[in-house]
Amino acid sequence: MAEILIRNGFVIDPTRNINGDVADIAIKDGQIVEGVGSKAKVIDASGKVVMAGGVDVHSHVAGPKVNVGRLMRPEDKLFKSPHNQKNYRMESGFSIPSTFKTGYDYARMGYAFVMEAAMPPLHSPHVHEEIHDTPIIDQAALPVFGNSWFVFEYLKNEEIDNCAAYIAWLLKVTKGFGIKVVNPGGSSAWAWGLNCLTLSDPVPYFDITPAEIITGLMKTNEYLGLPHSMHIHHNDLGNPGNYETTLESLRLAEGVATKNNFGRDTVMHSTHIQFHSYGGDSWGTFESKAREVMDYVNKQKNISIDLGCVTLDETTTMTADGPFEHHITNLNHLKWANTDVELETAAGVVPYVYDKDIKVNGIQWAIGLEMGLYATDPMRTFITTDHPNAGPFTRYPRIIKWLMSKQAREETLASFKHTDKVIDATDIHSMDRELSLFEIAQMTRAGPAKALGLSNMFGGLGVGMDANVGIFDLNFNDMPADPEAIEKAFSRACWFIKSGEIIVKEGDIVSHGNKRTIWVKPNVAENPQVIRDIQDKFLKDYSVGSDTYQVRDYLAPNPYVIEFDVEA
Amino acid sequence: MAQITLKPTKVPELYLEGYNITPDAFAGKSLMEIADLDAHEGKIKVKLGDYFEIAGQSGDTAEETAINIDGDCSRIKYIGNKMSAGSITINGNADMYVGGWMKGGKIHVMGNVDSFCGIAMEGGEIVVEGNAQNHVGCAYRGDWRGMRGGTIRIKGSAGNDIGTFMLGGTIIIEKDAFIHVSTHAEGGTVVIKGNVQGRVGGQMVKGDIYVLGSVQYMLPGFKKVGSVEQKIDGTEATFTHYIGDLGERHPKSKGKEVYANLYVQEA
Prior knowledge:
The structure holds two protein chains of two kinds.
Chain A: E1 4-13, E2 18-28, E3 31-33, E4 41-44, E5 49-52, E6 54-59, H1 64-72, H2 99-108, E7 111-119, H3 124-133, E8 138-143, H4 149-156, H5 160-174, E9 180-182, H6 186-189, H7 210-224, E10 230-233, H8 243-251, E11 268-270, E12 278-279, E13 287-288, H9 290-299, E14 303-306, E15 314-319, H10 322-332, E16 337-341, E17 345-353, H11 359-374, E18 381-382, H12 396-404, H13 406-414, H14 419-425, H15 437-451, E19 469-472, H16 484-491, E20 495-498, E21 501-505, E22 508-509, E23 517-523, H17 528-540, H18 546-549, E24 559-565
Parallel strand pairs in A: 1-4, 1-5, 6-7, 7-8, 9-10, 10-11, 11-14, 14-18, 23-24
Antiparallel strand pairs in A: 1-2, 2-3, 5-19, 12-13, 15-17, 16-17, 19-20, 20-21, 21-22
Chain B: E1 2-8, E2 16-17, H1 23-26, H2 31-35, E3 38-41, E4 44-47, E5 52-56, E6 65-69, E7 76-77, E8 87-90, E9 106-109, E10 125-128, E11 151-154, E12 170-173, E13 177-181, E14 186-192, E15 196-200, E16 206-211, E17 215-217, E18 223-232, E19 235-244, E20 252-253, E21 256-257, E22 260-265
Parallel strand pairs in B: 1-6, 2-7, 6-8, 8-9, 9-10, 10-11, 11-12, 12-14, 13-15, 14-16, 15-17, 16-22
Antiparallel strand pairs in B: 1-5, 2-3, 3-4, 18-19, 19-22, 20-21
């Protein structure tokens, strides 16, 4: 592979505490190296910011519910699908872009890694086919465990070792990355037309509570020593007053210690926390509890979060939280898709329009940003939109603009129909903090890479790391007065190098890259009981056989496998 | 008003997507610039000048521009797409999507139109002297926001799916219609002066339908509530008044549920 030398950029690399120093970055054979020869291709980055490739900790970009969204929303593509362009594959869609548009759009923003945030294990072959079809970016997928019959049965009896053996088996057969938990117990209760809105609501039939599921899965995660922590979408998403359930759920991390060899300090990743930080007891009294939640997150050092910022767009909600999607279609009367995934999970899809002239949507917008601004540790606070639930991932540059500029926030706030009511229900108007480029690099690069246990590869520009480098048109010493210039710069990287290959050259995609699927293979001692339980479920309950269940190697043809032995 | 005349010179092998045949695109341009406007034939990008002889002069604004198409447009789609003002006269037939997403101005078609005439229209006026195929004034596939304003008058008959997801505006079909009228509508008025086969007002939330002929098969979700004298589009008559669709949700106004109205002229 060719050698590349990126010269004279303002380097921002929190992993080495470098903040805007003018330096060169040398690349050889897909990695960052000390230096390269005189024949290396030279890219002049003078006057521009140089950062590691972005790392997205939570995004719904592949799999059945994404595809259901594409199928049920042809209008998402209307006038948003440019005619064929030279050297590009056709791109279509806005909130649920086609696989090619997904890869291109992330590359244009300088992102190198994206985590598909919810993989129904039964449908993992589809997830991997779509991941394979998405160019450029490295991807992994988190199978969902929070409503699994296996997990319920093991954790009900506190059999952490059996739960671990089952999860190790499932990660291997689905080529999964870690443990995702969506509305623990609630999505399973949905099969009875019920939900688990508090941590003590028992799951019908299984008689286990969300609190037991959460604690058990955190312990299982550390028993296995997985790269990532348990990754949770809390109970009671999206409802006024839900912050108390969120705090109760976060507190469960207090009793769990981290154990892993991947440099991770956290035991719980609390995702799209904006949706879980609501006060009030009705939509009329709806208000921000960002401060209460962030006060706790700031002091509880073994928790990481991502924001799930509302971007005020027309978008498509999709989640394994089946009862929530039913709730939302009753609120907005728009079309609804609903499914049950046997033994494992549920899911739903409903379009949603976040309207700046609706008070509640304005307050939601403010809450997401407040959480970013209240964060005292950007290494544990990551920028997301829970794509596409709170907005499309292509709005990350806009969120960065809002976080970096009070002026930009005030301009948006002033454009609302109910500006005063939004100000009354939130803190956003009084918050003067403006994040620095260093903090943005922590929230979008170094932080998520560390929480995912991938800090040896992603999130920084140290020698030996993967050569994922974005170059952005921002002068570190003379930042633009107009916040729009920040959004513009992060929307279109001038250059983006992924795994040592030039992908974006002067703003245009020039290569489909060499994407990889990253998955985790923890080797546990043979567990006869769990093997028997799995065989039993496939005989008695599943509608497929265990042979057809697994993800064959050809579905993930460019794997990067993190394999390790679990010490019992 | 400045007038531009387009004379078709060649029949496209596929269909021509003439999305730039609008007063908005033509306004303030020279004949050369108009001939240089993009169009698509299949996936191939072409120029309007490849398909038309262009004469006359455009106005400075869309409002001051009248487009006259002298010939058959049976293989040309998207005429008047998103237009905001001015006028288009088609002396012949036109293909799909005439006046789609139109905001203002007037389109007059002397012949027939194919499907999706006035799709997601917001304002302005479309008059078709002949017949229309399906989906007159409907919403785009999947969209819940259909026609919001303006008027579509089809002097002949029309096919199925008229005014789907309609929110406002008026559609008048002077002869017969096939099936599916105002499905999912939440506003607007559809007038059918001839007969309609059935499925009138399915899942309709709000809005009005007038049928001056007969409805062959009524939907079970509509309930007869009385008889009313009404004047609609110049016709004064006695109508049987139905409300519905009772199987659909309905908003409340001043404590009372608001239903969609179906008026069928009494024989």
